[in-house]
Amino acid sequence: MKTLLNPYEKESEFNCFGCSEQNKIGLQMKFMETPEGVISKWKPDKRFEGYFNILHGGIQATMVDEISSWVINMKLDTAGVTSKMEVEYLKPVNIENNEITIQGIIEKVGKREVVINATIYDQNDKLCTKARVTYFLYPKAVAQRKLKYPGKEAYFE
Question: How far is CA 5 from CA 47, 54, 120, 121, in A?
């Protein structure tokens, strides 16, 4: 596994809810590239609670969307925008004493879209959430211009 840098942090106005360290109310997710895709280890806290000690479903949906974007950056060397997301909540994600693992892997790539399978596992490696996330893909030059995509090399030291 390779730890990934967040090249967007160099932008003074970067404020992504999912991955920006500058966004103090955000998730501040960090990522690692694997041969299959991208993973993130993350420890939830009470500010992201839905029911008592349960991670809010909307936060889970945000996390699978975020990991999907990073999979596209790393595995397809471009960027895109979410066009569809189907999320299944299989088991509640407990907040207390729980480092969860969020994982994204490409299911299929078309000319202008990609489908990512994203999952959330609890500290015992039990599958809690699974999602199928479809992204509209931009050609790399368009992603660089419209989304400030820096290219895959920028994610490594």
Answer: 25, 29, 22, 23
The domain limits of the chain are 2-155
In one-letter notation, the amino acid at residue 72 is I
Interval 38-54: pLDDT, tens:
999 999 989 999 999 99
Pairing of strands 2-3, 80-89: unpaired
* Residues 86-102: tens digit of each pLDDT: 999 999 999 987 899 99
Q: What is the CATH number of domain 2-155?
A: 3.10.129.10
**How far apart, in Å, are the Cα atoms of 154 and each of 1, 51, 64, 81, 137?**
17, 39, 22, 20, 19
